[in-house]
Amino acid sequence: MTKKALRDDDMHGLRRTGGLTWSVRLSIPRDRWTDAGKAFRTATGIKQELIRSLGTRDKQEAIKRRDKALAAMREDLDTRLVAAGLLPIHGHWQPDWMKPENLIADALDARRELQSVSERADDDFDDNLQGPSDPRRRMMDGMDLMLDDRTEQLNASGKDGGKYYRQFREIALGEVTPFADVLDRWTAVREKEVSPASLASARASLKHFAAYLAEVQGHDQPLNDPVVFLRSQNMDDIPLPVIGGFVEWLGRQNLHLKTIQGAISPLKMLWEWSIRTHILKGPNPWVGATTGLKRQIERVEKSKPPEEREYHTAELVRLLKTDPSKGKRRDFTYGAAICDLLRLSLFTGARENELASLTVGRVINRDRTDGPLLGIAVTDEEAKTANSVRRVPLHPIVQPIIERRLRAVDQCDPDAPLFPDCKPGGVGMKRAHFFSQRFTDFRRAVLGRESDGELNFHSLRKNFGTYMGRADRAGVSECKLSVTQKLIGHKAQSLTEAVYMERELEWDVYSRAILGMVDKGMPDEVKEAV
């Protein structure tokens, strides 16, 4: 910056009167000249500027006094405008800190700063200087000065500065911790770490907890928005016995034991994160809250009916030979999808959503550079776990399904869905949501409700694994367990394989495994039914 520019900046808003005394000038925006004229009752009906003497002939002293004088002049102008029934000079604008939603965030930032400094006196502190000797006390004094200034500004604008002062100080000193900002910050962190399904589960848990707190506090009517109620609460104000009673309250809502366990987990993680980020002090009151539940769940698991199994050959043949589009069901829109995905899962071991969400871009080896088999890719977006990211070749028997689906969409668009008939829905807007319900209807119509609890779409993965195992025992070396694990998307079972062996095998190995599985492991009746 040149010396001339520096002088211009220094002199901005200053002028000298005839007596050489410095004055400060506040320009009024042209569109507010008439309003200012009314507020000051000028004879001309307009007012273009305010001028006030700074009471000094010294230029440097005038520069020091300028900002404070301008602030007072703006305040005086706003006061007159408001008294005249007009908007302040800048309308409804207010500093960011003055907005109620920013009070909590600013106060929590102040709390973290206070917690990060020492309460011990500085070794080199000069006793002859006035003021506290420890850094934390000095920081608190600085905060109080800032709050005094903000309180004056709020009072001048007609707001309750005293209330702002008390709320800010209570939060900054750790006397109260509001849910609102903590939930916002925690959710922002979780969105980067977990799936939409996990986020939805956490929201459900927070709604249960809000309903419980409302009941404890004597609210007779159901909450219109439980999360809004929860955001208005202070985390520190919740007594430990109240937290301890949440599990029992959930039990009285006739919820499944695992649902109750799932409702506690997000709250435990929320408190753990708040303690780790120094918003709350430990220990975590939710630790051990589900200990009794775990024992109850273990007892229930022992008395459960048989676990899910693979389809018997006769059951599969019945499913494959039944047209899902023809029957007493009122909704036949999923018939084609059921027919196609049933076969694809049986020949690939892929999960419902991995198949229902297939896109043009996830069909691989379309140019056949890696061999004669097309394939599908499961990417991070739809994979259930990191090990689920994989590539699976398509047997010639089911390749026509994908080729037909490709012809029906824009093949130049890699994001074009191959199963647009599978409408997104549910948590995370997954394409398998409604499909799963329709497949259940289909399975019950063919095999009866007695198949509930034992058979579902996931059972087809068990069939895939069973056929791979049979082919392995029949001499197909590519169908060994380690290859099956990679094709089905499971974690390696041995440390050697997980750490010291290649994570991805050659496409040719996968192709021979799929061909061998169908040739040596899959029953002829099933292949004929397909």
Description:
By secondary structure, this protein is mainly alpha-helical. It folds into four domains: 73 residues, no CATH class; 64 residues; 124 residues, Orthogonal Bundle (DNA polymerase, domain 1); 217 residues, Intergrase catalytic core (hpI Integrase, Chain A). Helices cover 53% and strands 5% of the residues. It has a three-stranded antiparallel β-sheet. The protein has a three-stranded antiparallel β-sheet with strand order 4-5-6.
What are the defining features of this structure?
single chain; 530 residues; mainly alpha; 4 domains; three-stranded antiparallel β-sheet
Q: What would you call the shape? A: elongated
Q: Helix count, per DSSP? A: 23
Oligomer: single chain
Q: Total number of β-strand segments? A: 6
Helix content: 40-55%
Largest sheet: 3 strands, antiparallel
Provide mean pLDDT, rounded: 84
CATH architecture of the largest domain: Orthogonal Bundle
Q: Give the low-confidence spans.
A: 1-10, 123-129
SSE topology:
Blueprint: H1 3-11, E1 14-16, E2 22-27, H2 33-40, E3 49-53, H3 59-83, H4 100-116, H5 135-156, H6 161-172, H7 179-191, H8 196-216, H9 226-231, H10 240-244, H11 246-251, H12 257-276, H13 291-302, H14 313-321, H15 335-348, H16 352-356, E4 363-364, E5 375-378, E6 390-393, H17 399-407, H18 432-447, H19 459-473, H20 481-488, H21 495-500, H22 507-521, H23 524-529
Antiparallel strand pairs: 1-2, 2-3, 4-5, 5-6
